[in-house]
Amino acid sequence: MNVTDLAHPAEEVAPRLLGAVLTHETPEGTVAIAITETEAYSGTADPASHAYRGRTTRNAVMFGPAGHMYVYRSHGLHWCANIVTGTDGIASAVLIRAGRVVEGEELARRRRGSTVETPRLARGPGNFCQALGITAEHDGANLLKGSPVALSDGEQVPADLIRIGPRVGVSKAHDWQHRFYLAGDRTVSAYRLSPRAKPSTGA
Length: 203
Hints:
Organism: Streptomyces griseoflavus Tu4000
Keywords: DNA damage, DNA repair, Glycosidase, Hydrolase
Enzyme class: hydrolase
CATH class: Alpha Beta
Number of strands: 8
CATH topology: 3-methyladenine DNA Glycosylase, Chain A
GO molecular function: alkylbase DNA N-glycosylase activity; DNA binding
Family: Belongs to the DNA glycosylase MPG family.
């Protein structure tokens, strides 16, 4: 995909981000990860989105402009990274759920632990951020210009390898088909239904 073309709804951008690469340059070294799993969150129209009830200090980055990174803490434990999409002023973002380390594996392994299997280095949104070295300081980073964290085109992903399914671990709008991933890729996280999930309707 053309990574500069992010001014579209999250559910349109999410599958096109598969294969794109997030790179983080730090004094420790550089880690680059090719994206293999994403989830779309549609802002105020999406009950599972952090922006569902409107703009707050926490979610302000989600409202644009597109191309910036929205970072939040999950369950007080893990950082999670989202790529903001859509029209400026309308909340829309794609959660990066998993990826394959394509540069800097040694550094990613030091961050994740020496015993972690290679396919698991960036499997799951928290692990992805840990391997890439993403924390709260990167909230709002411009991924397209002037930031040590950058988004770039990667290998073109054949359409027949892209799978679609319900989102992982959310209790609201969990059955929306907004999760996109590469078939058969060992870096993709396992599907898990939230124990608090209730039947819903929607996208």
